[in-house]
Write a structure and sequence with these properties.
single chain; mainly alpha; elongated
Length: about 120
């Protein structure tokens, strides 16, 4: 199924009019929509989940780094790399803690407690 889905995705992309026809055809089988779309969702779900996870994590890191730059005036490259290496949950915790930071030293101290 993955090979077929990969082939369809790579070589049989639908144009806008074809997508419209596909949507109309799909609507003609309301009880079978999930079965018809199962192929798509089974191979896209994993990619979407991974993409969203990476995207959310990257977005959180970007936001925290902007806030740190505003709060501390500078964020050394090594600290930026450490922040970007944190998972989404750690970034959430850091987002709360950053209100207490006044310098890169505070960020370093907080990161040191996270890696212990």
């Amino acid at each position: 199924m993955q090979m077929i889905a990969g082939f369809v995705d790579a070589y049989l992309r639908l144009s806008a009019p074809e997508q419209k026809v596909f949507g109309q055809e799909l609507a003609a089988y309301p009880g079978e929509k999930e079965t018809i779309m199962k192929l798509t969702t089974s191979w896209e779900e994993e990619g979407i989940a991974k993409g969203l996870t990476r995207g959310v994590q990257q977005g959180k890191a970007d936001l925290i780094l902007r806030q740190l730059r505003r709060r501390c005036r500078e964020v050394p490259t090594d600290l930026e790399q450490q922040v970007r290496s944190l998972d989404a949950d750690a970034l959430d915790v850091m987002g709360d803690a950053l209100f207490d930071f006044t310098s890169p030293a505070d960020v370093r101290a907080w990161l040191a407690t996270r890696t212990v």
